[in-house]
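Narrative of accomplishments. A recurring question from our advisory board has been how the design workflow behaves on a single, concrete structure rather than in aggregate. To address it, we present the structure tokens for one chain from the evaluation set, followed by the sequence designed for it. No filtering or post-editing was applied between the two.
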């Protein structure tokens, strides 16, 4: 097999070119190729060396598929030592994304240039790791302690211009990268630029308290994760140990992270997320329908957020409401959301204005005639939804995709209300829709392949992570929530308190305890849904009696100031004896014996409830694969990333 790394002389410059699609990851062959090329350059007529990549990006990191397997020589730190120890200056020329080991390669070079569109970052923390090839030692020497900590503990990439301001990139090349980088390298030679090793630079001045501050902040922000705290220790070592000692500590901590269940879980998620975007049986060559204009019906909690998702991606949106007042209310919430993003520095005023200008409103369904996609987000009423789809069938142009944001309803029944069920699909967004990453894409029995492929692709355009679900009550996520919620009620009756349940689950890693979630969503939603059911359909009263009593007392959750908790002026939950009395009375009425329940039992029973339902969902073919369920729970329901999702967690417990 030919090497993915080539070497040639371009006049007096030795050019090392990496070509290992899709992202030029540092596989063994790439590492060996770079080591060979550097060695060749030391003995030929070149006066300087340039490292550049072909394809869509500079090196995007170590090859994650090699993680967890025995390391094959040369190791990345060895390769980087060769780069840094080159007797001729080495220039890295960056386009696309220089991430992880890719950025570490660039930092081992003596000079760095980049296209303005390039991004650089150290995202290892998102894989439960820390930069393991000198990133923790070289970055603070070049950019200072704070910038290094921010880059590594957030894992978020930064634009080339920011990287230049931080001292990680020396020059921005505006035109063609190859010719620009060659010309700049010749300029460096002409100036007599020396071999400049990052490892030999000293760390700029820093605030003495910074490490304690970051440790305290990360203990809260990245609860239970080990990699962020190890990153702080490695950066601290860069300030008070030699480069070699710092490298040794970095290696030790990198290996500890690599062998941790947390990193295994987060690496699982990396591939799960990419796998989820693929639909079995639908090839990459499936034709896509163009989506240039979108209609959203309903400007409430979900409709407004959905409209923003498309506008933020540059797609124009028409929002339909029942009345001028309702429309004005919906649009004003959108205005408020954009205002908030500007205030928090998430969007510039200009960008927010440009996005907002893409959203228009109407009370006339005829305004949807030219839309390529229409998403319905009205009340969760199956008859209303069917009526709306009949209307859409009349006004939408042929080939338009018609989607419903229903949380539970039968997408096939909604599709059957139209004369074109092949164009109907479910797009289940999560609240707040403009922020939450998950999109459950519900494939109806008649949904056409090109409709599904178009929506999966569109999800990426609007920066969502799509997961395909078949049709069933609640699809993947909400269906699993049902037994989870019922188990919470049983735990309360058997002796746990709301605060104990929430604390146990939050300590375990859930973003929010279940009872706080119920209070936030509103207890009246489930109450109303239950009113429409027969006693048989409702099931065991132990699983709903307490919330029913609370709703009948006017305690509908956070919005009414009380639910499973009372809420103080600042919206913080406070345990409430009234609720405890209700729980104990209901337990007595229903003959439930109360006992002391341990936190371990709470976690074990709640996670098992999710996993058991997940297995049924898999068996029934509602989810394509187990890892899709993990993606749903992590991106839609606050399941801890470092546990890899309920299905991965259950498997890893079984194999432990
Ligand atoms: N190793 C192996 N495969 C990788 C990879 C990597 N580092 N990065 C991406 N891929 C694969 C993906 O799995 C995907 O494969 P598939 O087509 O078979 O599903 C393919 O490349 C394309 O990836 P994306 O779909 O994510 O493509 P995008 O264009 O959307 O994004 C990217 C490109 C920004 C580079 C994104 O893939 C990414 O963020 N990659 C991970 C970067 C990363 O985490 N690097 C650090 C690795 S750890 C490290 O370097 C340790 C070091 O410090 C020692
Ligand atoms: P909402 O009550 O906040 O908004 C619904 C809006 O639809 C209202 O503004 C109403 O005026 C409008 N509407 C009603 N009939 C209409 C019609 N015929 N034409 C145009 N507009 C009409 O409801 P919400 O929360 O936004 O939910 C909408 C849908 O999204 C429901 O199906 C719900 O199950 C689903 N969903 C809700 C989530 C949530 O957290 N709120 C999460 C995911 C899905």
């Amino acid at each position: 097999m030919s090497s993915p790394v080539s070497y040639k002389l371009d006049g007096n410059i030795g050019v090392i070119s990496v070509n290992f699609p899709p992202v030029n990851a540092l596989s063994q062959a790439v590492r060996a190729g770079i080591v060979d090329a550097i060695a060749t350059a030391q003995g030929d007529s070149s006066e300087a060396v340039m490292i550049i990549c072909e394809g869509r990006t500079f090196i995007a990191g170590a090859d994650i598929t090699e993680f967890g397997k025995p390391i094959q020589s040369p190791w990345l730190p060895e390769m980087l030592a060769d780069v840094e120890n080159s007797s001729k200056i080495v220039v890295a020329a960056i386009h696309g994304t220089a991430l992880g080991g890719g950025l570490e390669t660039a930092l081992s070079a003596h000079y760095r240039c980049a296209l303005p569109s390039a991004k650089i970052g150290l995202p290892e923390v998102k894989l439960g790791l820390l930069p393991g090839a000198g990133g923790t030692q070289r970055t603070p020497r070049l950019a200072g302690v704070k910038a290094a900590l921010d880059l590594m503990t957030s894992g978020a990439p930064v634009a080339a211009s920011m990287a230049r301001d931080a001292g990680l990139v020396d020059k921005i090349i505006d035109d063609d990268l190859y010719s620009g980088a060659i010309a700049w390298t010749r300029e460096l030679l002409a100036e007599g630029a020396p071999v400049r090793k990052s490892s030999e630079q000293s760390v700029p001045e820093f605030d003495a308290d910074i490490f304690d501050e970051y440790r305290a902040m990360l203990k809260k922000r990245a609860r239970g994760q080990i990699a962020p705290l190890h990153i702080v220790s490695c950066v601290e070592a860069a300030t008070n140990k030699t480069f070699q000692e710092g490298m040794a500590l970095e290696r030790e901590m990198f290996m500890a992270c690599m062998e941790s269940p947390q990193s295994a879980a987060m690496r699982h998620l990396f591939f799960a997320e990419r796998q989820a975007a693929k639909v079995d049986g639908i090839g990459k060559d499936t034709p896509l329908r163009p989506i240039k204009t979108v209609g959203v019906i309903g400007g409430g909690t979900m409709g407004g957020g959905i409209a923003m998702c498309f506008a933020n991606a540059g797609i124009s949106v028409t929002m339909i409401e029942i009345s001028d007042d309702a429309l004005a209310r919906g649009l004003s919430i959108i205005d408020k959301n954009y205002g908030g993003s500007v205030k928090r520095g998430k969007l510039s005023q200009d960008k927010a204005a440009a996005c907002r200008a893409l959203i228009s409103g109407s009370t006339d369904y005829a305004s949807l005639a030219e839309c390529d996609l229409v998403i319905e987000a009205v009340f969760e009423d199956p008859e209303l939804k069917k009526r709306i789809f009949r209307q859409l069938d009349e006004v939408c142009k042929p080939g338009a995709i018609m989607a419903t944001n229903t949380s539970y309803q039968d997408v096939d029944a909604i599709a059957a209300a139209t004369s074109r069920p092949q164009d109907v699909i479910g797009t289940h967004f999560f609240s707040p829709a403009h922020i939450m990453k998950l999109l459950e894409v519900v494939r109806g029995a008649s949904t056409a392949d090109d409709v599904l492929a178009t929506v999966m692709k569109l999800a990426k355009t609007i920066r969502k992570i799509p997961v395909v679900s078949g049709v069933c009550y609640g699809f993947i996520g909400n269906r699993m929530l049902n037994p989870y919620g019922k188990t919470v009620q049983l735990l309360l009756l058997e002796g746990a308190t709301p605060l104990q349940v929430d604390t146990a689950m939050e300590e375990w890693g859930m973003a929010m305890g279940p009872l706080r979630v119920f209070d936030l969503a509103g207890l009246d939603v489930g109450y109303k849904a239950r009113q429409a059911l027969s006693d048989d359909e409702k099931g065991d009263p132990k699983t709903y009696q307490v919330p029913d009593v609370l709703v009948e007392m006017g305690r509908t959750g956070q919005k009414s100031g009380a639910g499973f908790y009372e809420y103080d002026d600042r919206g913080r939950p406070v345990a409430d004896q009234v609720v405890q009395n209700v729980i104990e009375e209901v337990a007595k009425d229903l003959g439930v014996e109360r006992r002391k329940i341990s936190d371990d039992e709470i976690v074990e029973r709640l996670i098992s409830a999710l996993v058991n339902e997940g297995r049924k969902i898999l068996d029934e073919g509602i989810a394509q694969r187990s890892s899709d369920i993990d993606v749903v729970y992590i991106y839609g329901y606050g399941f801890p990333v470092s546990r890899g999702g309920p299905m991965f967690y259950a498997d890893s417990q079984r194999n432990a």
